[in-house]
């Protein structure tokens, strides 16, 4: 949207030219109006939205940010919002009601028409995060004995309320799904042909009680715009469309990224979440990580005698800690993403282990050689590491191989272990893995030092 257009709309609001503004707004696409409303202040948002015709207002409302939707529900006339809620697609309406207080939901549900209230209560009755919460009952179902001409006539009569017309669903006399057929098959077939002539009885469906994450994987594998939702007995209950799955995918990815950063997932947008709740979300993991890092101090205290004898070892502690933590963070990020994309199953853990052993050794050797070379170059310029500098360099190099290998293994296996235990793999965040590897990395470093420097510096 052009800046001058926004300025024109703002100017019309300030001048009270609401009739001109109403005419102007009719020419915008819903996506443009969403961007316009979300960019305006609260008062201007309400004015713009009030001027939209019902059908356009409903389309815009479905795509508005949750906070803006809440603002409209609280400040617009109840009859206006009741009309919009009745016009909304059932799946989008359910998604909104999920995030509202229970008493507010009860009030809004009462404002719905009897038919829409029945559908809404049915969808809200499914378990949270289930496919049933996502589905819409607005679809086209046909019978196998119909002709193509009957199907096309039925679409003309009832297709206006369907969420999508890309796929038609064939059911038997009991409502059991027996096939799905693309609309193009009917458009390209003779009018006298029967539906059964177009059927192959191969279709993909979701179960209403199925987890939404499983639905995401099924959509990705089958490349469908919509998928039917059935009951345990195979009865067609509704459909789930791609836009709902994309929304859930975005929420899941956002949650995983927030957890990978070492924080609890935020259940509200960052800028609208109360500060105290934001602190609570972040404080828990920070305390856990802090307590974990205290073990690092304990490890150094345990090897205090060795440090006093060979103070030169202390110079490389930050190097050792960061290298192990970095390799662990790399591994855990790669594995969690690969798991999310379904690139391997838990049964293939041994393949992951084998690859990380090889990768960890290779990366450790690279860093070990770099560390050895750095000490050698500095020693040639300024002999600060003493007569046993070769042993010091060898200690750092060998320790880096072990620490990077351990970091890679810990970072890759921990998400798999959590998944096996039924926990969220994203909980094994990069900071958590880094803290774990910090402590064990120091133990590896000082153990290697004891073995290689005994009788010289130690």
From TrEMBL:
<feature type="transmembrane region" description="Helical">
    <location>
        <begin position="429"/>
        <end position="453"/>
    </location>
</feature>
<keyword id="KW-0472">Membrane</keyword>
<dbReference type="Pfam" id="PF00571">
    <property type="entry name" value="CBS"/>
</dbReference>
<feature type="transmembrane region" description="Helical">
    <location>
        <begin position="283"/>
        <end position="303"/>
    </location>
</feature>
<dbReference type="InterPro" id="IPR036739">
    <property type="entry name" value="SLC41_membr_dom_sf"/>
</dbReference>
<feature type="transmembrane region" description="Helical">
    <location>
        <begin position="357"/>
        <end position="377"/>
    </location>
</feature>
<keyword id="KW-0460">Magnesium</keyword>
<keyword id="KW-1133">Transmembrane helix</keyword>
<keyword id="KW-0813">Transport</keyword>
<comment type="subunit">
    <text>Homodimer.</text>
</comment>
<dbReference type="InterPro" id="IPR006667">
    <property type="entry name" value="SLC41_membr_dom"/>
</dbReference>
<keyword id="KW-0812">Transmembrane</keyword>
<dbReference type="Pfam" id="PF03448">
    <property type="entry name" value="MgtE_N"/>
</dbReference>
<dbReference type="InterPro" id="IPR006668">
    <property type="entry name" value="Mg_transptr_MgtE_intracell_dom"/>
</dbReference>
<dbReference type="Pfam" id="PF01769">
    <property type="entry name" value="MgtE"/>
</dbReference>
<comment type="similarity">
    <text>Belongs to the SLC41A transporter family.</text>
</comment>
<dbReference type="InterPro" id="IPR000644">
    <property type="entry name" value="CBS_dom"/>
</dbReference>
<comment type="function">
    <text>Acts as a magnesium transporter.</text>
</comment>
<keyword id="KW-1003">Cell membrane</keyword>
<feature type="transmembrane region" description="Helical">
    <location>
        <begin position="389"/>
        <end position="409"/>
    </location>
</feature>
<dbReference type="InterPro" id="IPR006669">
    <property type="entry name" value="MgtE_transporter"/>
</dbReference>
<protein>
    <recommendedName>
        <fullName>Magnesium transporter MgtE</fullName>
    </recommendedName>
</protein>
<feature type="domain" description="CBS">
    <location>
        <begin position="199"/>
        <end position="255"/>
    </location>
</feature>
<dbReference type="InterPro" id="IPR046342">
    <property type="entry name" value="CBS_dom_sf"/>
</dbReference>
<dbReference type="InterPro" id="IPR038076">
    <property type="entry name" value="MgtE_N_sf"/>
</dbReference>
<keyword id="KW-0479">Metal-binding</keyword>
<keyword id="KW-0129">CBS domain</keyword>
């Amino acid at each position: 949207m052009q800046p001058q257009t926004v300025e024109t709309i703002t100017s019309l609001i300030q001048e009270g030219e609401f009739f001109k503004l109403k005419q102007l707004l009719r020419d915008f696409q819903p996506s443009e109006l969403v961007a316009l409303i979300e960019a305006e202040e609260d008062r201007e948002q309400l004015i713009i939205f009030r001027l939209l015709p019902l059908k356009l207002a409903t389309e815009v409302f479905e795509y508005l940010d949750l906070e803006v939707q809440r603002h409209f529900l609280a400040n617009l006339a109840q009859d206006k919002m009741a009309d919009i809620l009745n016009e909304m697609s059932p799946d989008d309406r359910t998604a909104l009601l999920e995030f509202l207080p229970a008493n507010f939901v009860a009030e809004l549900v009462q404002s719905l028409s009897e038919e829409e209230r029945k559908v809404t209560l049915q969808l809200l009755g499914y378990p949270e995060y289930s496919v049933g919460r996502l589905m819409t009952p607005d679809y086209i179902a046909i019978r196998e004995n119909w002709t193509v001409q009957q199907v096309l006539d039925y679409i003309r009569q009832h297709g206006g309320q369907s969420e999508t017309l890309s796929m038609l669903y064939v059911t038997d006399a009991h409502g059991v799904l027996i096939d799905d057929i693309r609309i193009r098959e009917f458009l390209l077939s003779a009018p006298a042909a029967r539906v059964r002539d177009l059927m192959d009885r191969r279709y993909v469906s979701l179960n209403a009680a199925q987890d939404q994450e499983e639905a995401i994987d099924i959509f990705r594998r089958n490349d469908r715009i919509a998928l039917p939702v059935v009951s345990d007995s195979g009865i067609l209950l509704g459909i789930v469309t791609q836009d709902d799955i994309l929304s859930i995918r975005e929420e899941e990815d956002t949650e995983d990224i927030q957890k990978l950063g070492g924080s609890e997932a935020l259940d509200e947008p960052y800028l609208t979440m109360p500060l105290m709740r934001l602190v609570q979300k972040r404080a828990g993991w920070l305390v856990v990580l802090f307590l974990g890092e205290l073990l690092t101090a304990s490890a150094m205290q345990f090897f205090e005698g060795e440090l006093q004898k060979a103070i030169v070892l202390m110079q490389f502690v930050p190097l050792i800690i960061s290298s192990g933590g970095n390799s662990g963070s790399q591994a855990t990020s790669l594995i969690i993403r690969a798991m999310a994309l379904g690139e391997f199953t838990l049964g293939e853990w041994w393949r992951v282990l084998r690859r990380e052993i090889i990768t960890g050794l290779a990366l450790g050797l690279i860093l070990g050689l770099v560390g050895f070379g750095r000490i050698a170059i500095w020693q040639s310029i300024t002999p600060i590491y003493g007569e046993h500098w070769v042993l010091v360099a060898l200690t750092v190099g060998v320790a880096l191989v072990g620490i990077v290998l351990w970091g890679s293994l810990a970072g890759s296996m921990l998400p798999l272990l959590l998944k096996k235990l039924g926990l969220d793999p994203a909980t094994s965040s990069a900071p958590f893995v880094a803290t774990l590897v910090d402590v064990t990395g120091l133990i590896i470093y000082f153990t290697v030092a004891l073995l290689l420097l005994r009788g010289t510096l130690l």
